[in-house]
Each structure stands twice: as structure tokens, then as C-alpha cells.
Amino acid sequence: MIVKEGLVRLKIPKDYQKKKHFFNPKMELARDLTVLILKTLDARNWVVCDALSGIGARGIRIAKECNIKVWLNDVSEDVRPFLKKNIELNNVKQKVKIINQDANQLLSSNRGIFNYIDIDPFGSPCYYFDSCARSVKRKGLVAFTATDTAPLAGTNPMTCMRRYGVKSFKTDFFKELGLRVLITSIVLSFSKWSLTFKPLLSYSSEHYYRVWGRVEKGKVKVNKTIDKNFRYVNYCPKCLWRKVDKKPVTKCGFCGSGSQTIGKVWLGDIEDIKFIQKCQKKLSNLDWLKTKDKIEKLLNLLKNESIPLYYDVHKLCQKHEMEIPKFRAIIERLEDRGYKVGRTHFSNKGIKTDASVKDLIEKNLTEIKPKLS
């Protein structure tokens, strides 16, 4: 069975959705974004490690479409015939090295070798943070995929605590919180090695989180990064009030109820806006990417993510017994009153704004009639 993706052809097994020969067609967006990011960074002389390569879809695309040397590694020998066939199909033998080793062993035994490491596992990527920190070059790039979205988003708080070091709770901005918890754990894991991890581009999709970040060396940088970007999230599930603070707050600042405290978590930027703009320019020349339109829409929304913790407008109105306004109306009212506001990629029912719950309810939704009882 041959499929075409990007500029490559891939032989995939009939049981491609089983773990042994796994290939996920739904991850084409993530693979397209990987190619776009590497092209934007002009990564032609890099050495890349696709540490959990499977049948080689991502790594072979990088080798073919970006003209980069790639190590394709997978612990399972069952995928080796597909790797060899896909390398042959795409004529990238000179650019690709096949390895059959545990990913952590491979990375830990090749310190400072790779300009880019890609980790796309089943479930959590937390088991690979330390080995990536050992093997990535300074000023290198690392990408992580997490498909254990339930613990990260607060559904299983203790599992989140065990894997990522943060006890999360369910909130109305759960998709963003999950991504920020993931970044929190990456940053702290890398900091043990005196490395900073700066998110370049990150997003949430229906079944996974994906983060790309640059790595730099220096204890002073690490200390400044943690001090500047780590805060507590104080949250009231009763009225959906939230406050980012250096210290826990036990009482809701809007309705007076008891509040939950999450953190400390990463409340810094989850995107590099200048880099996203560069990606948009590069994207205009990549018409062969099947997901180009999706990427264009996503990048436009990602530029709004500098304000932390989106509001779910539907849930906010339901909590406060108000009719749901049109998004254009609420955005115009917020802009007229001088607030920053924009849509978010995390939810089609969400907005990003620096207005508080009090500002939203008392000043910006007052024209909306309460629900009839």
C-alpha cells in the first residue's frame, strides 16, 4: 500500500494503525509544519534525529524535502523493511542512517550530536526529556508530541503530577492549560542540565499537543527564564474567575468563593511571533503542502496566543445566565474599551483578552439580556 504525502511516497502496511507498524495519516499537519519550520530556519547543514521513527514518514520527508541528514531510529525491528523500502522509493539513501535502538540509549550515547531531535511517542514524551537535553546541540531545536491529553488538561490530576510535576485541575481553558503544563515540564527538565527551552511554535489539536523549542546553554539564562515565566494559576470553578500571580490565592476575586491553585506553570509565551511571521512568508512558496490552508489559518490564530488563558464564551455566559453574544460584537466592544482581544486556536468558542471576568460581565456583556427563567 503506497500513499503520497508532501513530496514523498510511503509504503505503509495494511495494519498501519497498530502499534507495531504505526503510521498516523492525521499527523500530516504536524509533519508539514516540521518541514515548514526547518525550511524557515534554513537547516540545510543540520543533523536530525527522528528518535521514534516508525516507518520513517517524518524523517524521510525531512531528508527529501529539506535536504538534511537524518538518523531514523526505532527500537522495533518490524519497521526495518518499511524503512528500507521508503528510503529506496524516495532516493534518500545518502541522507539517511537507519538505527535499531532504544531511543533513550541512542540519545544519551550521542551527546551534543543533533541540531534537531523529534520525539513523537505513544502517550507521554516525558520519558525522553533528559536524554534529549543530553544530546541536542546548543542552540538546537527539539520537538515533542504528547497524546496523553487527559492528564495534561486536568482530567487525571495525580497522573499529571506523577508525569509532569504539576497537579492540574479541570478548567474552561483546559486545552491551553494542558499545553502550558507540558512546556512547564520540558523547561524544568532541561533546566537541570543548565539549558533553556524557548517555545518557538506550539499548538493543540484534537488528540495531541505539539511543541517546538530552541535550546540554549547558561545557568544565568535558566534562572532568569524560570523567574520571569513561572506563575501560579488561581481559578474559581464557580464563576470562571482566574488570576495569574506569583503566589497562591485562596479566595476568588470576583464571587468570593474558594479558589483552586495550579502551578507553578509556564505563563510565558508559547509562540515566537516573529518566527511565526517568518514561517508565513516561507509557507507562501510551499504550494505542495496538502495542509497549507490549515497551516495558514493556524499560524494566524497562533499570533493571538501571547495573552495567557482563553475564555470559553459559551461557558462564561452559561455560568452567569446570559445569552451568548456574537463573537464579532463582543470583540468590537472589548476593542472599543481599549482591551486586547482576539480569537484563539484552542477553541472555536474561545477568545483571548486581557479583560478580567469582572470586566467582561459588568462592562462588556451588559448589553446582552439575561436568560429568561
Explain the layout of strands and helices:
Layout: E1 2-5, E2 8-11, H1 28-40, E3 47-50, H2 57-66, E4 69-73, H3 80-90, E5 96-99, H4 103-108, E6 114-119, H5 129-135, E7 136-146, H6 149-152, H7 157-164, H8 174-191, E8 195-204, E9 209-217, H9 219-229, E10 230-235, E11 242-245, E12 260-266, H10 273-283, H11 292-302, E13 311-312, H12 313-319, H13 327-336, E14 341-343, E15 350-353, H14 357-364
Parallel strand pairs: 3-4, 3-6, 4-5, 6-7
Antiparallel strand pairs: 1-2, 7-9, 8-9, 10-11, 10-12, 13-15, 14-15
Helix pairs in contact: 1-2, 1-10, 10-11
Sum up the structure in keywords.
Rossmann fold; 15 strands; Phenylalanyl-tRNA Synthetase, Chain B, domain 1; alpha/beta; 14 helices; 373 residues; seven-stranded mixed sheet; disordered C terminus; three-stranded antiparallel sheet
CATH class descriptor name of the largest domain: Alpha Beta
How many structural domains in the coordinates?
Answer: 2
Low-confidence stretches: 368-373
Major β-sheet strand ordering: 5-4-3-6-7-9-8
**Which structural class matches the secondary elements?**
alpha/beta
Computed over alpha carbons, the radius of gyration is: 22 Å
Q: Report how far the terminal alpha carbons are from each other.
A: 59 Å
Reading the helices and strands in chain order gives: EEHEHEHEHEHEHHHEEHEEEHHEHHEEH
**Biggest pleated sheet:** 7 strands, mixed
The name of the CATH architecture of the largest domain is 3-Layer(aba) Sandwich
